[in-house]
Structures are given as C-alpha cells and as structure tokens.
Amino acid sequence: MELNKLFEDIKVKQWIGDKNVTISDIAADSRKVQKNSLFIAVRGVNIDGHKFIGQVVEAGASVVVCEEAPENQPKSVLFVVVENSAIALGQLASNWYGRPSENLKLVGITGTNGKTTTVTLLHRMATQLGYKAGLLSTVRNIVGTREVEATQTTPDPLQLHRLLAEMVEIGCDYCFMEVSSHAAHQHRIAGLKFAGAIFSNLTQDHLDYHKTFADYRDAKKMFFDGLSADAFALVNADDRNGLFMLQNCAASKHTYALQKMADFRAKVLESSFEGMQLEIDGVEVWTSFVGRFNAYNLLAVYSASVLLGFDKTEVLTVLSKLGSVDGRFQCLRSKSGKTAIVDYAHTPDAIENVLNTIKNVTDGNHQIITVTGAGGNRDKTKRPIMAAIATELSDKVILTSDNPRNERPEDIIADMKAGVQPAYAQRVLCITDRTEAIRTACMLAQTGDVVLVAGKGHETYQEVNGVKHHFDDREVIKQIFDEE
Question: Alpha-carbon torsion 447, 448, 452, 458, what sign?
C-alpha cells in the first residue's frame, strides 16, 4: 500500500527518513515483525512498545510509528512520530484493511451487564430478517457462517479490522460488537466508524484497572464522544448514567426504559421460568427470556432494530422466537424437579438481578441455593459486596473457586466471606473445589428448589496459575442430575 494512502487522515508530527519504502504488513507485536514490516510502538498497560524498536529494526522493519523517535535512527528505517500511537494503530489498521467499518453498518454496545446478550440477539435478529451479519462478542466472533474464537471482549485493532474486512468481503450488511471499557480507554476502537452505539447500564466492575467509578464511567463515555453525526446513540434512561453518555454526543440521541419516559418503552406483564409476557411499544409479545434485566436487553434489541430501519412488526415476531444466549440465565431441570440456573453474573449488580428474578418467579416456598466465586487478579473490592448480596437473597450460599488465575482460591473466598453479615453467616459454606461445590448445592436442593451457579456462564475452562483446564458448569450439573 502507498504510504500516503496508509497514513490518510492520520496526524503526523514528524517524518524522519526516506518515505520511499516498501511495507509488507503492519504489526504492534515486535515478535511478529519481519522484513519490510511497519511496526507501531504502543505504550501499553504493562509493556511499552518503544522498548522494542531496536529489536524490530534488526528484524527488518522498514517503518516505525512511535511517539518518541530513538536517538540513533538507521537510514534504512522511516520513523513516523505521532501524538498517540494507540490511536494511530487503529487508524492504520483501518486504512490497511480498506476502512471496512465504513462499508457495513457497525453497531457497538457498552455497559457493565447485558452486552453479550444484546449483541448476540441483534446478530440473530439481523440474520433471521435475511441479512448477512457479523458478531464480535465475549462468547464468540462470527464472520458470516464462520465462527472465530473470542479471546477478549473487544479484539485488538489489527484483529478487529481484519475480521471486519472479512465480513465486508463476504457481503455482510451489519456487524454487532461489544465495546469494553478497556477497549475504549486503550483506543482499541480507534479508526472505527459506528452506525450506532448502545449503553445498557453501569455498576461496579473493573476497578482494578480504572481505579475509580468515575474513571470507569468516563471510559464508557469515550465511546459515545467519538460518534459521528450520522450515527445513533441509544441509552438506558432508567440508569442514572444513561443521559450522561449523551452529553456532548454528536449522534442522534434516543432512549429506552421500563420505568421512566423514553422513546422506546416496555413493561413486564407476566413472568415464569418458561419466559415472560412483555408489552413493547404498546404491543404484547411472549418471549422465552426471564427477568427484568432481560426485558431491558430485549427492549434494547427492539429499539436498535427499529433505529436500523427494520420493520417493527417483523422485529417483534422475531423477538418472540429468539432463544437464550449461552450461559445467560440458562435453565437445567432434574428428573426430581430441581432447577439449576447457570449465569455469567460476576458483578454485584448482576448477582442481585439474577437472584431477584429467581425470587420473583418462585412462589417463596422453595429454597434458593447459590454457588458463586470471584475471579483472581481482578477487582477485589467487589468480592465482599457480591457475597453480601448473595447471602441476603439466598437461603444457602456456597463460596467457591471461579477463575483463581494467580491467586489462592482460599484467599479469594476469604475476601468474599468478609462481606457476609453476621446474621447470615450460618447460610454460608466454603468449598474450594467448584465441582464439589456444585454437587453439594444440588444435593442440598429438594424438589422445586433452585440452584444458581453464577460467575462462569458460557466459559468452558477454569484458569489456575496461568493454565486453562476444561471446566463447564453446565456439564457438571447435567452429570449430577443424570445420576439422580
């Protein structure tokens, strides 16, 4: 690609060297640099790419994009100095792959909870309405009919633009993607043109990274601040941060809500473990989803679909046929009449939402037994809060391992147990082994009782000391129920 085209619309502070260069590929990982590569030195959270400039020059890089050029500048290398390498990476990735986000309608969603369910259902909505669509989510990435493993909520810029380019190549009309606070803060969405943005809600999470709730909120807002005037911004008006996201946003502004006045409204008319009857924009529709949190998700799907120009009646028809998302309030029933629910809930708000949904659906004559833990090397401040909520809203709670990563599971469980009020202490058991914790919960349950297994949802692994071991909550529950 010609240098001028590659750096189109990118603000360059200084060119150092001969611009007559050949570029074979672009890389932000020094280990992937080869002869004639363009290397972008990004200052990451743990690693500064500038430290590897000498290494990539030796490997044959022809161009180095950086915020600060080294003192010794080989004449064989063109150094391009920019204000922010992370932003430049996204823009370069976009240009390298032909600006794919401009050639389909890209819709992103940010928020603490509901992102995966909403984008997955939007993807299903579009495909069932006859469109080709892509999906970029925590659970899976889909390019047309091809599934690509998802390693993080929002891919790195090079992978992201490559996947979008593949979607454009096969004729996708839409792409629906999750936008994490990390991705917004680290400029991983730089170079993307969004047709629409959705805000679901904001509750405590990721304070290990963002340090304060305000910083976490502001990272989400960066996504909306970057929208163009021809995009739409759709926010949950029932969340106190919803309207904040719309401040100084250039996009057309829209709201959805179950409680407040909004452009799109819904009401829960009836609810059971089989599903719920909703009234959306004055029309009643039955869905197989359960809980107010899912009513918000479904309303966001409906609202975004209408804003994309889909027919309202067709949207409601498809909405009534959509099934649950992997690991999101997924129900399993035993032969003896016990119910187990597997959910990805791993924040205080998510735990509270799921348990309140279970309490609202059950008749109050049966136990709720919760199995939960917390991930290692992540926000420690939410651990005692999650345990406090779980013990208050459950009859019994078993604290266990989630993904301990590089922490001792016993230490994580102790952090959680510290949040349990003395009045509820007798409700708590601590079982480090997750399989045994789930087995114990199922054994304690009687006919009609509900076992909530929270935290891992769709995940099929347990990460311990940097190694991922196969583990699936759903498989464990099915095996235990089969033994009854």
Answer: positive
**pLDDT tens figures, 102-136:** 999 999 999 988 999 999 999 999 999 999 999 99
Q: How many domains does the chain have?
A: 3
Q: Which amino acid is at 478?
A: K
Q: Is residue 433 part of a domain?
A: yes
In a domain, 131, yes or no: yes
Specify whether 359 is located in the same domain as 305: no
pLDDT at 184: 85
**430: containing domain:** 330-482
CA–CA separation, 190 and 178 (whole Å): 14
Q: Do 277 and 236 belong to one domain?
A: yes
The 10 Å Cβ neighbour count of residue 116 is 25
473: its two tokens: 């909550």
What contacts 473, CB < 8 A, 6 or more positions away? 327, 342, 434, 438, 453, 456, 457, 459
Instruction: List Cα–Cα distances, 471 to 33, 197, 282, 458, 459, in angstroms.
Output: 36, 34, 44, 10, 8
Tell me what pLDDT residue 418 has: 96
Residues 299 and 434 in one domain: no
Amino acid at site 270: E
Please give the torsion angle defined by the CA atoms of residues 183, 188, 191 and 192, in that order, rounded to the nearest 10 degrees: -40
Instruction: Say how many CA atoms lie within 13 Å of 344 toward its Cβ.
Output: 16
344 and 153 Cβ atoms separated by less than 8 Å: no
List pLDDT tens digits, range 159-194: 999 999 999 999 999 999 999 888 888 899 999 999
What's the mean pLDDT when you consider all of the chain?
A: 93
* Model confidence, pTM: 0.84
Q: Which of 125-129, 206-210, 224-228, 359-363 has the lowest mean pLDDT?
A: 206-210
Six token digits for residue 68: 């600060």
Instruction: Please state, for a pLDDT cut of 70, what percent of the chain lies above it.
Output: 98
| β-pairing verdict for 63-66 and 37-40 | parallel
Classify 82 as helix, strand or coil: strand
> How would you class 319 by CB atoms within 10 Å of its CB: exposed for 0-12, middle for 13-18, buried for 19 or more?
buried
Q: Is the pLDDT confidence value at 222 over 50? A: yes
| 260-283: b (≥16 Cβ within 10 Å) or e | eebebbbeeeebebebbebebbee
325: in domain = no
Residue owning tokens 């669509």? 133
Helix (H, G, I), strand (E, B) or coil at 141: strand
Type and span of the H or E element at 459? none
**β-sheet bridge partners, residue 147:** 142
Q: Are residues 12 and 53 in the same domain?
A: yes
